[in-house]
Amino acid sequence: MQIKGDCKGLYGSVVVPGDKSISHRAIMLGALADGDTVVYNFLRGQDCLSTISCFRKLGIDIEEFDERIVVHGKGLKGLRKPEDILYVGNSGTTIRIMMGILSGQTFDCVLDGDDSIRKRPMDRVIKPLRQMGAVIDGRDGGFPPITVKGSVLKGINYQMPIASAQVKSSILMASLYAEGETVIYEPVKSRDHTEIMLSYFGGDVTISGNIIVSRPVNRLQPQIVDVAGDISSAAYFIVAGLIVPDSEILIKGVGVNPTRTGIIDALLNMGADIEIINKRIVSSEPVADIRVRTSCLHGITISGDIIPRMIDEIPIFCVAAAMAEGITVIKDASELRVKESDRIYTISRGLRALGADVRETHDGMVIYGRPQNGFNASTVKSFKDHRVAMSMAIAALVAKGETTIEDFECVDISFPGFIEILNGIRRDI
Ligand SMILES: O=C(O)C1=C[C@@H](OP(=O)(O)O)[C@@H](O)[C@H](O)C1
Ligand SMILES: C=C(OP(=O)(O)O)C(=O)O
């Protein structure tokens, strides 16, 4: 993909596709509910389509219409043994949360994914699920393919060693099949869409601070789920609107669940002109419109609790940091090393190719903002990582000349239509 630089301004309003995390969960809980769940604004990105494909193989009828998806749920005990392996493509969320669901079934199955998934650690999920009684294994102790033998589960008390919504959600799904209560202690609060949606579907979940208690229920109630716009996708336009001169963008209908808004808090601390307006609740999740205008940003340090609240946005945050005055330091973000790519390495490498001064540390980066000669166009790798590809596209807007981003089609994993929306608000195209 070629991206023309020297962008003269971005102007207008955009609507980003539905939230990836919420879309996955709507299919999963819809499949386990007794009856039809209707999902509006479902994200038709490859990751969520992988979730649909896995549940179809498990015997769930899922119909796709233009504006909605209908999941014909068969109840907690309604899944049937698949005839094939369950292929999750590039989606960590699909494989990890499904491991929890499949542990409590009465049949065996195998989960596998692409080259990137085969390198991602699954022991973080295997360990607590085994404590619950699951019979589950991975290649070399913890990598896909994963085999799951359905078994009888019991509730556990689990202190999570890392903040991970995928691990938490996998345990919560298994808790639906476990005898007794499951208690999860999170070191730092991670996104809570599973807890919110489980309650919405009639599950028995209580949350107090970082402690979540779940008890099994006899049935889940099907629902209408209107998926909020994905703040992770909105983040590319938020940063673009801040760093491209003469810009003003309104992003409509974005999910602003506080466990996801770390990127907004971090950018506000850098001096960003961001307004959150028209706040409302949609299907139990907070949603708002976000207005951004070109701003003079300055460097900051981010670490600790804010990191899980913006984990997927750190690549695009690095682009903002590289355009800010002064130094930005990112700490406590070693989880980035086990995403679709090692994002500490891949985003540092991409930004350096455009002329930024970025140094890697074991758990983050140090970014010396505003390179003297500005950004200069180059050919950069996406490493087939959708978040790196889109972050580089935004950085390319403020480079001199035309940047080439390799393997750009990977953006379809989370944001089909990204480039069309971006070109639609460029004043110079
Ligand atoms: O639960 C989820 O939907 C997700 C959780 C996060 O992963 P971790 O749980 O590994 O932090 C995030 O990076 C991923 O894109 C989506
Ligand atoms: C890490 C991501 O997703 P997943 O873990 O589901 O592959 C992401 O979308 O940035």
Automatic annotation (TrEMBL):
Signal peptide: none annotated. Pathway: Metabolic intermediate biosynthesis; chorismate biosynthesis; chorismate from D-erythrose 4-phosphate and phosphoenolpyruvate: step 6/7. One of its GO terms (cellular component) is cytoplasm. SUPFAM superfamilies: EPT/RTPC-like (SSF55205). It is an enzyme of class 2 (transferase). It catalyses: 3-phosphoshikimate + phosphoenolpyruvate = 5-O-(1-carboxyvinyl)-3-phosphoshikimate + phosphate. 3-phosphoshikimate binds at residues 20-21, 25, 164, 166, 312, 339. The active site is at residue 312. Its EC number is 2.5.1.19. NCBIfam families: aroA. Belongs to the EPSP synthase family. This is 3-phosphoshikimate 1-carboxyvinyltransferase. It comes from Caldanaerobius fijiensis DSM 17918.
